[in-house]
């Protein structure tokens, strides 16, 4: 099967990365990784779609804005959501289908909520997923540090699948836009 890939940047908003809903673990490192991954996508002609949490600050506020270092181009798709699941109540799936996408590279915030939900839901919708190991982050909670949460999710999501589609966790330094899923089938 021919794989067509898109990059999904989820909730990379100022209010999460640096603001009152964060800061996330290693915010500047995360932003630099997201910039590099996005530039790689651009150089390969990979579509980039953004998901923005409508509950993060007021529309138009700094907290609500996608981080300025990775702000979308005017031609790029930005989908606003209310749920942790980027697909729930949005037209994300329809937009991806219209582009012929069947492989998603997922990055963004927060690991245990919106990243986890998007990865799992994407497989049930028929997408193979590459989660960028160093391209998502979160904040400490009362039980675990952000670093532990990230490591845990990188471990438990790697190889997770639903019938046929599944998730691979790969470093941003790898060729993440070339899916390797078929070599495991």
TrEMBL record:
<dbReference type="InterPro" id="IPR050272">
    <property type="entry name" value="Isochorismatase-like_hydrls"/>
</dbReference>
<comment type="similarity">
    <text>Belongs to the isochorismatase family.</text>
</comment>
<dbReference type="InterPro" id="IPR000868">
    <property type="entry name" value="Isochorismatase-like_dom"/>
</dbReference>
<feature type="domain" description="Isochorismatase-like">
    <location>
        <begin position="5"/>
        <end position="141"/>
    </location>
</feature>
<protein>
    <recommendedName>
        <fullName>Isochorismatase-like domain-containing protein</fullName>
    </recommendedName>
</protein>
<dbReference type="InterPro" id="IPR036380">
    <property type="entry name" value="Isochorismatase-like_sf"/>
</dbReference>
<keyword id="KW-0378">Hydrolase</keyword>
<dbReference type="GO" id="GO:0016787">
    <property type="term" value="F:hydrolase activity"/>
</dbReference>
<dbReference type="Pfam" id="PF00857">
    <property type="entry name" value="Isochorismatase"/>
</dbReference>
């Amino acid at each position: 099967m021919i794989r067509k890939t898109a990059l999904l940047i989820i909730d990379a908003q100022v209010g999460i990365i640096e603001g009152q809903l964060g800061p996330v673990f290693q915010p500047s490192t995360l932003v630099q990784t997201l910039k590099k991954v996005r530039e790689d996508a651009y150089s390969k002609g990979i579509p980039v779609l953004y998901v923005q949490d409508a509950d993060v600050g007021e529309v138009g506020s700094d907290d609500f804005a996608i981080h300025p270092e990775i702000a979308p181009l005017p031609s790029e798709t930005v989908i606003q959501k209310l749920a942790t699941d980027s697909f729930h109540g949005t037209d994300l799936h329809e937009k991806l289908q219209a582009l012929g996408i069947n492989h998603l590279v997922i990055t963004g915030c927060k690991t245990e909520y919106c990243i986890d939900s998007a990865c799992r839901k994407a497989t049930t919708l028929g997408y193979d997923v590459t989660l960028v190991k160093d391209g998502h982050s979160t904040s400490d909670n009362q039980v675990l540090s952000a670093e532990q949460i990230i490591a845990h999710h990188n471990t438990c999501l790697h190889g997770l699948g639903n019938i046929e589609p599944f998730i691979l966790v790969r470093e941003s330094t790898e060729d993440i836009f070339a899916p390797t899923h078929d070599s495991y089938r």
